[in-house]
Amino acid sequence: MATPAPARLTVLSGPSGVGKGTVIAEVRRRHPEVWVSVSVTTRRPRPGEVDGVHYHFVDDAEFDRLIENDGLLEWAEYAGNRYGTPATPVRMRLARGLPALLEIELQGARQVRTRSPEAQLVFLAPPSWAELVNRLTGRGSEAPAVQERRLALAQAELDAAGEFDVVVVNDDVARAADELVGLLTAPAPGLHQGTGAHE
């Protein structure tokens, strides 16, 4: 059984509230064979979260060690906590000729683009700005100033869509999930084996 070579690293990113987690959950439901990287974080587990399933939960000292030992493909800080992508599982997956999927924020996607130019960056976009505003403000549990900050950040993230290779519109979760799986398994256009960036 031949697998498409070379295997490709695919990054899914997009603004807060666009439904990245929902699309990833649908990908896993419809295509359980798809491998999604589990991020490492310094934040405390929330109720119901399982270590090694939702995140790898570590303390600051361990996170510092990962950075020092080139153990993270990318990392960023949000709301006083740090999040990153463990490098070893991703590298092992790609070395076996199998695709790998990361769901990360814009800052992390830019780091991956710098370190692994051959990676495929996919931007998940809302059907419209009005729909994204509804998703971000519909919870009604945040102060107006917090909502304003979230909307300003979402606008800045939307403006970065042009930095990505492909834009997938999340107007239907099942369709968006199928489109993402298609991108994961498609051969990389013009990609030459052995010309990737040195890690």
Automatic annotation (TrEMBL):
EC number annotated for this UniProt entry: 2.7.4.8
Domain Guanylate kinase-like residue range list: 7-185
Compartments (UniProt record): Cytoplasm
InterPro entries, per database record: GK/Ca_channel_bsu, Guanylate_kin-like_dom, Guanylate_kinase, Guanylate_kinase_CS, P-loop_NTPase
UniProt catalytic activity: GMP + ATP = GDP + ADP
MF (Gene Ontology): kinase activity
TM region positions: none
Keywords, comma-separated and alphabetical: ATP-binding, Cytoplasm, Kinase, Nucleotide-binding, Transferase
Family matches, as HAMAP family: Guanylate_kinase (MF_00328)
Family the UniProt entry places it in: Belongs to the guanylate kinase family.
Name of the protein in its database record: Guanylate kinase
Upper classification of the organism: Bacteria, Bacillati, Actinomycetota, Actinomycetes, Geodermatophilales
Gene: gmk
